[in-house]
Amino acid sequence: MSFDGLWDELVAVGRNPGTGGYRRYAWDAAELECREWFVAAASRRGLDVEADGNGNLWAWWGDPAVGGAVVVGSHLDSVPDGGAFDGPLGVVSAFAAIDVVRSRGIVPTRPVGVVAFSDEEGARFGVACVGSRLLTGALSPDRARSLADDSGTTMADAMRAAGHDPHRVGPEPDRLGRIGYFVELHVEQGRVRPVATGAAVPTTDDPHGLVELGAPVGVATAIWPHGRWRVDLPGRADHAGTTRLRDRADPMLALAAVVLGAREAAVRHDTLATIGKVDVRPGGVNAIPSHVTAWLDARGEDEARVRSLVADVAELAPGDDPQSSLTEESWTPATVFDVELRDRVAALLDDVPLLPTGAGHDAGVLAAAGIRSGMLFVRNPTGVSHSPAEHADHDDCLAGVEALARVIEDLASAG
Ligand SMILES: [Zn+2]
Fold it and tell me: At what angle do helices 394-412 and 88-103 cross, to 10 degrees?
């Protein structure tokens, strides 16, 4: 099976020996090595390789100019100390699936493409799905070019250093217009309950995730609506040793109420709420803070529930201080994948489970741009992702390749 060979070539690239996690950030040395691997894998298969203006890599079996192409793939970059599977599993499986289709002597009537989208995780420049968003026009070229990493290097500079002209970034409607279908295979992240297809409505007690459902592969239904909010909690700086408790205006207490309240509200509205970033000023061990800023990430099955959660948190945030506030920094509505494609793929794969996801993906960006898009998930026994603990069993990876091969066969021979 060609999967193993492809996987083994890539597995050491960008792996940190200390943590065992991957550090493949947009346009850095490890990520460029992944790009070289992509070009080599495509060339060995006689596929035509090209980089588009946004740094996304494409490998073609057949002439994409024909149109109606079936594109499969994912991304190669990682979060800091990410797992081996998030992204690369989809790209490796795409090449391996083409090998399977060819080994069966099938000649597609539509062009088939493998894509590796650039900078999906946004680990270096802080914005996710940069390659696909630039391609579809959802991210402005000027904004992308001026994004800077922690050392002050802009994306434009990073591109230039890697030999890519930053002036080429921007929407490519012609390229998008040649895509008939995009199917992204991805490692399962978390354990979500499946979506009801018949009369039975799943309850919280029903099995969650592909492990509990006993299925190696699932099909995505939708990406949950999600957003980010900034919570500002002002206080008054003072001495930790000389200020009586009753004389303090300590915003850290308000933060504690917000953190616990967000958790309770998330349970109440059956959503997810996370406060994973906090900025405390001035940040001294022996100083009562003058100001605390926290960021709330909220997601859920539908917008109404997420909005209710955020409204509840907003009530906690002000406390007694009119200066306190909760500000929306970003909002992404639900992305529902093409229902016809979803049902066709699920039926093709013998009615595999249908699952929503709380994570953003390039497939969601393309779906939002009107491309018929879908996703396959490969079972992750721990559900853990964005961590070295992320895992997929070898047999499940091969089941994913087989599923993707069947999808390519079916879609690429469709009229
Ligand atoms: Zn991913």
Answer: 60
* Long-range Cβ contact pairs of 391-395 (< 8 A, separation 24 or more): 391/83, 391/85, 392/85, 392/89, 392/187, 392/188, 395/216
* Rounded Cα gap, residues 380 and 396, in angstroms: 9
Identify the pLDDT of residue 41. Answer: 98
What is the pLDDT at residue 361? 95
- 186 CA to middle of ligand 1, Å? 7
Ligand 1 centre to CA of 129 (Å) is 9
Coil/strand/helix, residue 363: helix
Residues with CB in 5 Å of ion ligand 1: 86-87
> What 3-state class would DSSP assign to 200?
coil
pLDDT tens profile 104-135: 999 999 999 999 999 999 999 988 999 999 99
CA–CA separation, 343 vs 329, rounded Å?
35
Residues forming beta bridges with residue 50, ordered by sequence position: 58
Distance 207 CA to ligand 1 centre (A): 24
Phi-psi region of 82 (alpha: psi -120 to 50; beta: other; left: phi over 0): beta
Q: What is the pLDDT of residue 79?
A: 94
267-294 pLDDT per residue, tens:
999 999 999 999 999 999 999 999 999 9
Instruction: Provide the pairing of β-strand 57-61 with 48-51.
Output: antiparallel
Q: How far apart are CA 298 and CA 310, in angstroms?
A: 8
Would you give the distance in Å from CA 313 to the centre of its chain?
A: 26
Q: How much distance in Å is there from the Cα of 203 to the middle of ligand 1?
A: 27
C-alpha span between 195 and 184 (Å, rounded): 19
Taking Cα atoms as reference points, which of 136, 129, 231, 227 lies closest to residue 176?
Answer: 136
Question: Taking 80 as the threshold, does the pLDDT of residue 389 lie above it?
Answer: yes
Average pLDDT over residues 204-232: 88
Task: Note the pLDDT tens digit of each residue in 191-215.
Answer: 887 876 554 555 556 678 899 889 9
Q: Which of 53, 313, 315 is nearest to 169 (CA)?
A: 53
Q: How far is the CA of 291 from the centre of ligand 1 (A)?
A: 35
Distance from the alpha carbon of residue 386 to the mean position of ligand 1, in angstroms:
9
- Torsion angles phi and psi, residue 103, rounded to 5: -65, -20
Determine contact, residues 87/360, Cβ cutoff 8 Å: no
Is the separation of the CB atoms in 324 and 254 below 8 Å?
A: yes
Separation CA 49–CA 206 (nearest Å): 45
